[in-house]
């Protein structure tokens, strides 16, 4: 195999980002899209110039022309269709969160190992040069020993039928956007979370429309973060260490160029970072390297397991309005 032939399960809005990336990526070919309604799938395929469409997800998985699938379905469907794809011998790039329970991550890992396929969780920002530069600066001691991280992600949801507001579909701000500050902090600190605390504002349907959380890591470093669907779009990240602080603009959706601000005792330094002209392309190409070149996935399933464990503990803490030891 010298090219990964892709199928997409579903016609989610995020496909608008992934389809150009799949086409721009080296050694990548978009072959088919699946919809639960055949007419809708055919219309969607024509509008995006995708060669083939199917009237069910399983029909696409059974197609020998497909090597890998991208899964942008609602959170509650990720495990079911990732397992189905693995059983069909397909590699899987699944949108975050990969699962809503640690036991399900273990099931996916076991199934993927048995079938010899790659399964990776899609966190686009981790593949971007801005993230790589931030992690490099921290690792090189730019801020000294990391003591505290503050971060957040907000945007307002106007549509009452949005799937992110449905508890049956794995909705909620923490699963959808709170996962970004949590995963970024885990990458920065590089140690296990040991304790969490959380408080949430719950909707009438039972999802967290806002959540404020604290994660404590082995060694004492902490993350304080906020996620919410009740405020305009905004993202932020600041890393405080024993020798300085690093401010990161647009940490989860970086632009073509970004400027980091590093403050130390001797003054502030602005650091230019060149980004990507097309977001998601690097994520796709890194995944292809795992499939074709046997490169290690940037987000291994062990990291996905840690993320799910931390998020699940935060939900437990939020429901109890208290602390949870992991």
Structure, described:
- The chain is α/β, with parallel strands linked by helices.
- It has two domains: 4-123, Rossmann fold (3-Layer(aba) Sandwich); 125-281 and 307-325, Dihydrodipicolinate Reductase, domain 2 (2-Layer Sandwich).
- Helices cover 34% and strands 30% of the residues.
- The chain is built from nine helices and 15 strands.
- It has helices spanning 15-24, 38-47, 57-61, 78-87, 102-115, 129-139, 173-189, 281-293, 301-320; strands at residues 4-9, 28-34, 52-54, 68-71, 91-95, 119-122, 146-154, 193-202, 208-217, 222-228, 234-241, 244-248, 257-264, 267-274, 323-325.
- The strands form two sheets. A nine-stranded mixed beta sheet has the order 14-13-12-11-7-10-9-8-15, with helices on one face.
- Strand 2 (28-34), helix 2 and strand 3 form a beta-alpha-beta unit.
- The longest helix has 20 residues, at 301-320.
- The mean pLDDT is 97.
Euclidean distance between termini CA atoms: 42 Å
- Tell me which CATH architecture of the largest domain applies here: 2-Layer Sandwich
The DSSP helix count reads: 9
CATH topology value of the largest domain: Dihydrodipicolinate Reductase, domain 2
How much strand content do the residues show?
25-35%
CA-atom Rg in angstroms:
20 Å
What's the order of the H and E elements? Answer: EHEHEHEHEHEHEHEEEEEEEHHE
How many strand elements? 15
The tally of structural domains comes to: 2
Average pLDDT over all residues:
97
Portion of residues within helices: 25-40%
What form results from the Cα inertia axes? globular
């Amino acid at each position: 195999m010298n090219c990964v032939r892709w199928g997409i399960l579903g016609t989610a809005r995020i496909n608008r980002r992934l389809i150009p990336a799949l086409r721009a990526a080296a050694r990548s070919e978009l072959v088919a899209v699946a919809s639960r309604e055949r007419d809708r799938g055919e219309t969607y395929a024509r509008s995006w110039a995708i060669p083939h469409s199917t009237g069910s997800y399983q029909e696409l998985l059974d197609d020998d022309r497909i090597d890998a699938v991208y899964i942008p379905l609602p959170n509650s469907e990720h495990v079911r269709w990732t397992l189905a794809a693995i059983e069909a011998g397909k590699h899987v790039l699944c949108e975050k969160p990969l699962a809503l329970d640690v036991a399900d991550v273990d099931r996916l890992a076991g199934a993927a190992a048995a079938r010899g396929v790659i399964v990776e969780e899609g966190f686009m920002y981790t593949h971007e040069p801005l993230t790589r530069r931030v992690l490099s600066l921290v690792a090189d001691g730019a801020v000294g020993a990391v003591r505290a991280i503050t971060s957040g992600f907000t945007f307002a949801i106007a549509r009452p039928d949005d799937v992110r507001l449905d508890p049956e579909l794995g909705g909620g701000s923490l699963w959808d956007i709170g996962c970004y500050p949590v995963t970024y902090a885990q990458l920065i600190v590089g140690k296990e979370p040991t304790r969490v605390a959380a408080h949430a504002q719950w909707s009438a349907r039972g999802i967290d429309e806002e959540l404020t959380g604290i994660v404590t890591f082995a060694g004492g470093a902490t993350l304080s973060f906020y996620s919410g669907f009740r405020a305009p779009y905004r993202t932020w990240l600041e890393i405080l260490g024993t020798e300085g602080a690093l401010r990161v603009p647009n940490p989860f959706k970086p632009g073509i160029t970004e400027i980091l601000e590093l403050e130390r005792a001797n003054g502030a330094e602005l650091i230019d970072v060149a980004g990507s002209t097309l977001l998601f392309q690097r994520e796709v190409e890194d995944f292809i390297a795992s499939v074709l070149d046997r490169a290690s996935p940037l987000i291994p399933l062990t990291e996905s397991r840690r993320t799910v464990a931390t998020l699940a503990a935060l939900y437990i803490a939020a429901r109890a309005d208290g602390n949870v030891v992991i």
